[in-house]
Design a protein that fits this description.
With 173 residues, the protein is mostly helical. 72% of the residues lie in helices and 0% in strands. Helix 7 packs across helix 9.
């Protein structure tokens, strides 16, 4: 990484953090996004900009932040956001309150893992392949199952796990 860009990141970390929060709309992944982009910048051997003033560097880093957050082919998506989407369906469950106390997020994740392990072998193996390969197309090519079928099976697996978790949480009340 260029020393000028490294110095800019060090000096303006708080500003970059705010930009990341605005891009993610104050999502809990904003710090992860910023750190992933910083790691990507460190991995680059050479960064060529027309000018190395603060505005150019800020614009360059902001463009990388936006691309990583919104693109489904970005390194950030493959490393962080894709796996996070498993828990998006269950977002409201962590905020549910019982008569005694609210559930802890860790308990929900433990329940989620237990329910995923109870899926039938077909849905489970397709879902694991989807997480590993990163796209429905790749799973379809590897398994020679048509893409619409893969999509349906993944949705069925997510729905089944979600309903089991909701039932399990209702029973615990």
């Amino acid at each position: 990484m260029n020393k000028i860009i490294e110095a800019y990141i060090t000096k303006n970390y708080y500003l970059l953090s705010n930009i990341s929060e605005r891009i993610t709309k104050h999502h809990d992944l904003s710090k992860d996004l910023l750190h992933e982009v910083i790691l990507q910048l460190y991995d680059k051997d050479e960064i060529i900009l027309k000018s190395y003033d603060d505005n150019s560097i800020r614009y360059y880093i902001t463009a990388i932040l936006r691309t990583n957050f919104y693109s489904k082919t970005s390194p950030f998506y493959y490393r962080v956001r894709r796996e996070h989407t498993l828990y998006v369906d269950l977002n409201g469950i962590a905020e549910m309150e019982s008569d005694q106390e609210s559930f802890e997020v860790q308990n929900i994740y433990d329940i989620l893992e237990a329910e995923f392990s109870e899926l039938n072998w077909f849905h489970k193996s397709l879902f694991e392949m989807y997480l590993t390969l990163g796209s429905l197309k790749k799973v379809s090519k590897k398994t020679t199952i048509p893409l619409p079928s893969i999509s349906r099976y993944i949705k069925e697996a997510r729905k089944e796990v979600k309903t089991k978790i909701l039932k399990r949480l209702e029973n615990e009340d």
